[in-house]
């Protein structure tokens, strides 16, 4: 082994705490960054890739058939910067019964000669394309499975001949719910014409809008009934992951910053405490470069181990988190996976970062003059802080205490480094406990503060369960009659057209006790009148509406204008909530699809579920578990990260203080030589560290609180109510502050006591 | 070896630290095979002089030539390479690397010149044996006595067969017995041809060297050759 290797290895072996801290910090930071990056990549890249592979439509424009002819539309093809497909005849059919996996409601059907073409090349997932009358191909939204066994299912729409499913296709553009052969369309009485456009520039909303304007210029005004930008679909795709991103990004950044600062601190600590060692290496004939190499090699070993382990564990953990993050999202042909380059890039990037963090103190070590390093050692520069020292000495406090405070003045650089680590540690702990508290409060929403809740789903062909004998009203009566019931809330679900938007939306209609929903309102108020709805932030942003706006819902030829009266904490980007009275206007007689039963406090939910299921075979009954899967994940995630980041921060503080104190051993021995008792030596050390810890805590806690506020205010799909943002309590904050000081004192105590116990002779001997 | 070869040559070397003049124009020559003692009261500039010769620090004025090489013309890296090949240094407080066992401390110097770890260990063990501390080969410096530490330090200094051995108060931190042992060891080395420059404030130790350079206030005040050594 080379001389550099020998010297570096000896330091690594003898500085086990330091080495371990570096490895742990790097491992954890790499893990965090891998997860954060995997989510970022998964949130956009798979959509983009699948969309590009299909030559997806940047805009889908629907025209009123009465106002514009097919020939007029054909002339829009071939305009500069535009690729067009169509016109295709289109119609919105009404399907009165649930079919396949879909609920009853509107079905957008387009007549297309085949799945290919210059725009929106559909992927035929199973079966074949519709070529003959009576055949239909249905859009299959979920990626992965091949729904071969559903081929041949008939679909009966109001006023249309029965169509048989001959294939399933996927459109990343979401251009239709189903397709038939163009010849079939006449029998379906088309009302619209569809054009699919790709533009040369389409990365922003403005560019897409400009493209549409260019492509449709010269057509009769008012001919366009709806325009759909692919950016909407892309946002919906990323919406779920977006809710995690701000939090995961913060943890990722924190991990990065903590690791860089602590590694930098640990290495510069090693350099400073090794002043004399550097002098010796140089006297032996080590060049500056070799000294730098020794210090870099010293951290390379643990850093490499940390990077590798972090990347591997990140690669193992990230897919599970992605799976939960993307559950329930129409992923189409996009594949949600962690690309191999993510952990590789993170490991390499982290390694580079750590080496850079180490380079500064290592170069400083290399430049150090050998004569100075050997003779001067790490003595403070003469005269520095002399006046402050004199002033402190005059104060009516015990001399060891004032000496301890004086050390902060004579060595401001060292004190600042220690303070940075404490501030970072306490701020991180504050922020992560705050985020965890917010997420716990959010998760707690769903299962009503310890009151047992039972979910009841009505059997239907759609969920492959026996259909009930009882009517909607009779089921509700039964649920009230089973012992233990307190309130019953019924929910009906319909797909409804939203005027001006080609994609139908879902409406939840509630009957009975809606107090649980009322808790989720963050702005405005609950829907009370028949023409009122409430919805979540992602629906509002994706449809460009706000609380107070009016939207028009249409179902089966009935149009009802409704007002958005309130904003929910969070919900699907495609759904609004309404009262049962609205259902009576849009689709009277629609039965409930499920019920939520809250039991009287203390009632046995499992027993209730058994009795209800026994009384009516046509329902599925289940006692509700705590929280929902997604919030459980993120709470677990936040909690685990809090513990780990806290531990790393604590280790960093501990390590810094340990080094500082160890470095001063000789000085402490000298103080004993002039008559200081061991107890006084400990007091002195602990004083300087306590002062530093308290000062840093005062800075760190407000910083942590501010960071928490910044994050919870900017989580896209969840609008946290004030009660969930204000998670701070005085005792908790005090505990955090005390923890910061305590960790610092713990780090100082062991070496201080060791130094205090040494006899003066030993101290001088060891030098 | 020609005993006339000049190993060290100083010409009007001055060194100032701010207002302090540590060396006020020192000229001297050291020939191969000589044992030179530099003495004088504390603060007279002995260590500074040694640092100049070792290339650990640069003079404010004047030239330092060692083995025909003008140190002023060398870069920092050049100085390091020169040091490892031609010089061995011993300090008052040993300056061993606390993190390495005795044997590895010695072997490290060999590895620096490109020798393999194995070769270096063999030579290091040989040297430790010659200096009577082979048994402590696996001990860390903290577990060694002062005398043992200085022997290890001497072994390390001899590792690359230096043209010049520099020692700054090598006995200063030792009790009189260990100090005597180390001194005798250095003189034995000189008898077998090793050129030696020892800084000491102890006139009795100085008297055992072939030539004594006395310093006061950064200048050479007197040079003499003691009876016994001559
Ligand atoms: N790095 C330094 N910075 C400032 N002054 C120094 C430095 N090194 C030595 N001196 C001063 O130079 C003078 C000579 O010091 P030194 O050579 O160490 O003396 P000696 O070794 O003879 O005791 C002293 O006055 C000392 O204070
Ligand atoms: Mg000296």
Automatic annotation (TrEMBL), chain A:
Q: What is its main location?
A: membrane
Subcellular localization, per the record?
Cell membrane
* Residue span(s) of domain ABC3 transporter permease C-terminal: 250-369, 640-758
Q: Name the residues that span the membrane.
A: 20-43, 244-272, 293-321, 341-363, 415-435, 634-660, 681-706, 726-749
- Which topology term describes how it sits in the membrane? Multi-pass membrane protein
Please state what the protein is called: ABC3 transporter permease C-terminal domain-containing protein
The species is Actinoplanes palleronii
Q: Which UniProt keywords apply?
A: Cell membrane, Membrane, Transmembrane, Transmembrane helix
UniProtKB/TrEMBL annotation, chain B:
Would the keyword Cell division be found if you checked this record's keyword annotation?
A: no
Q: Where is the ABC transporter domain?
A: 8-230
Organism whose genome encodes this protein: Actinoplanes palleronii
State if Metal-binding is listed as a keyword.
no
Which SUPFAM superfamilies does the entry mention?
A: P-loop containing nucleoside triphosphate hydrolases (SSF52540)
Check the record and name the InterPro entries matching this protein. Answer: AAA+_ATPase, ABC_transporter-like_ATP-bd, ABC_transporter-like_CS, ABC_transpr_LolD-like, MacB-like_ATP-bd, P-loop_NTPase
- Protein name per its UniProtKB record: ABC transporter domain-containing protein
Under PANTHER family, the record lists: IMPORT ATP-BINDING PROTEIN (PTHR24220), TRANSPORTER, PUTATIVE-RELATED (PTHR24220:SF659)
Could you name the domain of life of the organism this protein comes from?
Answer: Bacteria
- Species lineage, top-down? Bacteria, Bacillati, Actinomycetota, Actinomycetes, Micromonosporales
Question: Which Gene3D superfamilies does the UniProt record give?
Answer: P-loop containing nucleotide triphosphate hydrolases
List UniProt keywords, sorted A-Z: ATP-binding, Nucleotide-binding, Transport
